[in-house]
Design a protein that fits this description.
Blueprint (H helix, E strand, L loop, with lengths): L6 H5 L15 H16 L4 E4 L3 H14 L3 E3 L16 H8 L16 H18 L5 E4 L2 H12 L3 H11 L11
Parallel strand pairs: 1-2, 1-3
Helix pairs in contact: 2-3, 5-6
């Protein structure tokens, strides 16, 4: 599940770790998550893991309270590390990427590549798969990490991810079965 709509989504600024500007869920973002509760209940979730960034923590807490569960936080579920672009306007990030095909191996200064995101997300899945066999687990994270997780589980190449990114991308507040 991707976190609900938040301040950084509305105001269009990059927000990773450390959070230079707080980006809480908006009123609409909270409403998005509350609308997902019936679907989450139907999924019979056993465990919830979440990014520790504010918008994801708030999302996970809303779901956890409704399901009577506790949230486990994991740093590997954090947003893309935008490096020096953290806290900056989204348009600066777009200019840095300069055409998006570079996004898989292009590292922002003091940040990470998309390939590194994929690796940390897949490492997370391998770890929880060993510890929690046959459990239904909700992962609350962010757009690019969830896209990279899904693509990694599907074994897609960078080119295939690029060509299918619209289908792979989760909208704010979207709840989707990955496997």
């Amino acid at each position: 599940m991707r976190h609900g709509g938040s301040k950084c989504n509305v105001e269009e600024f990059m927000c990773s770790w450390p959070e230079k500007q707080e980006s809480p869920l908006t009123k609409d973002g909270r409403a998005q998550i509350k609308m997902i509760i019936p679907k989450a209940k139907k999924a019979r979730i056993d465990l919830i893991f979440s990014s520790d960034l504010l918008r994801a923590r708030q999302t996970a807490q809303i779901v956890a309270e409704a399901l009577g569960l506790k949230v486990k936080f994991d740093k590997r579920l954090r947003e893309y590390n935008f490096g020096i672009y953290n806290g900056r306007p989204a348009e600066e990030w777009v200019r840095f990427l300069n055409g998006q095909r570079d996004m898989f191996k292009k590292r922002p200064p003091k940040g990470e590549t998309r390939r590194e995101i994929r690796k940390r997300m897949l490492d997370f899945i391998k770890d929880i798969d060993k510890k929690y066999k046959n459990k239904r687990i909700l992962i609350v994270s962010h757009r690019e990490p969830l896209l990279e997780l899904q693509a990694g589980l599907m074994g897609l190449s960078d080119e295939e991810i690029y060509n299918n990114s619209v289908k792979l991308r989760l909208d704010t507040g979207e709840f989707r079965k990955l496997c």
